[in-house]
Amino acid sequence: MTGKRRRGESRESAEDYLETILVIRRLRGSCRNVDIAEHMGVTKPSVTKALGNLARKGLVEVVDHDVRLTATGKRLAEETLSKHRFFEGALLDAGVDAEVASKEACRMEHCISTDSFEKLSSHLEQIQDSLR
To answer: Any alpha helices (H) in the chain, and if so which ranges?
Structure first.
């Protein structure tokens, strides 16, 4: 495996963790390691390791077992969640099964740059507006 491939997987994993933390905090108001592990289907030691990496990058902080996003972490989480919801919605609108749409949206959210996503989203909005 090349270094470039590992960095891509590492970025995707980080984005998945940030997105999960954001979703859990919105649902429950707080977020613990065990909540992340359950939501993502991973072990608690994996979560602990990932959170350490995210904390070193300045994306999360853990205060009294409560996992919190920093401003930068929250921005990245919101961007990732926005992409996920956009792609999931488009796939659902196209008739894709809900479970498949969610899984494929998760893959799609990681492979498009923010700039390309914003342009695509804007373009599709213009098309939809012109059809109304």
So the answer is: 3-28, 33-40, 44-56, 71-93, 98-111, 114-131
* Residue with the two structure tokens 């980080």: 14
SS3 37: helix
Query: Tokens at residue 99, please?
Result: 């479970």
Q: What is the pLDDT of residues 15-48, one digit of tens each?
A: 999 999 999 999 999 999 999 999 999 999 999 9
* Neighbouring C-beta atoms of residue 23, cutoff 10 Å: 17
Instruction: Give the end-to-end CA distance of the chain in Å, rounded to a whole number.
Output: 48
- Among 82, 91, 89, 99, CA closest to 23: 82
How many C-beta neighbours within 10 Å does residue 101 have?
19
Structure confidence by residue, pLDDT tens digits, 59-75: 999 999 999 999 999 99
> Largest alpha-carbon pair distance within the chain?
51
Q: Which residue has the tokens 């959170």?
A: 51
Q: How far apart are CA 67 and CA 25, in angstroms?
A: 9
pTM of the model: 0.85
Query: Are the C-beta atoms of residues 60 and 70 closer than 8 Å to each other?
Result: yes
